Amino acid sequence: MKKINTLCVIDDDAIYTFTIKRIIAKAEVAENTMFFHNGKVALDFFVENVSLTDSLPDLILLDINMPVLDGWQFMDQFINILPQIQKQIAIYIVSSSNDPEDINKARAIAEITDFVVKPITVQTLQDITYQLCG
Fold first, then answer.
1. In total, how many domains does the chain have?
2. Helix or strand or coil: residue 126?
3. How do residues 115-128 score in pLDDT, each as one tens digit?
């Protein structure tokens, strides 16, 4: 299976972060990973590196409920800088919410590839990567 270069996780839950690190390693889907504990820190990274295509991820796994800047607020601001980014970045909302309102909201945002309900599995991560890499 082909690997993506960089996978980014934006999530404030320490237990989930610990778990997803192990799942990413077991799934063998990414050469590099980056983690941000809220949307603000992640957005700051993207703003600072907007023209450094190689530094940017191929895939973002984005939580909805976070302090400082939640997933929806991150997306609102990320969409504004997206025209400056010369790279295709797939964004998946990964949330413990299975609220139809959240799912419909994610599907209404063209820049969001899909919505995945936690917990994410090795197989799900491999399927996502396969869709990205072909």
1. 1
2. helix
3. 999 999 999 999 99
Q: What mean pLDDT is predicted for residues 83-106?
A: 95
Coarse DSSP helix, strand, coil percentages of the chain, rounded to the nearest 5 percent: 45, 20, 35
CATH label of the domain that carries residue 104: 3.40.50.2300
Contacts of residue 120, defined as CB under 8 A and 6 or more positions apart, other chains included, come to 20, 23, 61, 94
Range of the domain at 110: 4-133
Q: Please, what sign has the CA dihedral across residues 2, 111, 6, 53?
A: positive
Q: Taking Cα atoms as reference points, which of 132, 12, 128 lies closest to residue 62? A: 12
* Torsion angles phi and psi, residue 78, rounded to 5: -65, -40
Q: What is the pLDDT of residues 96-112, one digit of tens each?
A: 988 999 999 999 999 99
Q: Which amino acid is at 55?
A: S
Contact criterion met (CB below 8 Å) for 94 and 116 = yes
